[in-house]
Amino acid sequence: MPQLNPAPWFPIMLMSWLILSLIIQPKLLHFTTTNHPSNKPQMTSQTTPWAWPWT
């Protein structure tokens, strides 16, 4: 069965990962995010415990 022979597919897989990690990934990392993180403190809301009828 030709699917079990890794000889033709292993170099293709290696080349595709090299292209992805060396060429495409740095180009994608240059994009800036639209929502920059802020230094605002987290607001915690006051929650009341649920009054269960059987307690």
UniProtKB/TrEMBL annotation:
The keyword Ion transport applies. Keywords: ATP synthesis, CF(0), Hydrogen ion transport, Ion transport, Membrane, Mitochondrion, Transmembrane, Transmembrane helix, Transport. The keyword Transport applies. It is found in: Mitochondrion membrane. GO terms for biological process: proton motive force-driven ATP synthesis. It is a single-pass membrane protein. The chain crosses the membrane at residues 6-24. PANTHER family: ATP SYNTHASE PROTEIN 8. This is ATP synthase complex subunit 8. The lineage of its organism: Eukaryota, Metazoa, Chordata, Craniata, Vertebrata.
